[in-house]
């Protein structure tokens, strides 16, 4: 299986954010390769290496090296570099060994799109949807207080029309879609030096390849977002525990 990693050699000089002992560094790299292979070979998702951020007081620096990076630790290292769905552990290891310390990113608009809502609204909506027996896909939680519901691709482009049909088009909702040309940070990678992303509902063999249609979730998500406070909550003691 071929890799679209022709430009990956130019990234070999990327420095690792954290200073680790050699043994710990090897274990971290091995774990990262295993995680990448799980996403590609088990769940059937493409993976791209992402930049990492480090925080020192109020200052955040990005591993991309740009002094004025607009999104430290929250962007791909190179848009042409990816490990494709179906890649084995050996193939993922060969590719990821050339980008030490990279975050794991999942492109949206391919196997899935994402509906992004505030964490409090997402937690409440998840309980409602589970009680209603609505088919659900994986759900991730971010360290800065957002929930990502993975849904069938195309949802981001259809979102304005879907909200219009449901009567939510003129409501002030803390809800947006992520689709083609965008990405999410995959658990357990760090997101922009805020902390690791985690799963509220981890992927399974059934849900990874067949995420639900957005319309099945959107009514509940919109209603709960409308009822929730307009200010995005920050993670804290009352947030759900990610797995």
Automatic annotation (TrEMBL):
- Domain DNA primase/polymerase bifunctional N-terminal: from-to ranges: 36-218
Q: Which Pfam families match?
A: Prim-Pol
Reading the lineage from the top rank, the first entry is Bacteria
Q: What is this protein called?
A: DNA primase
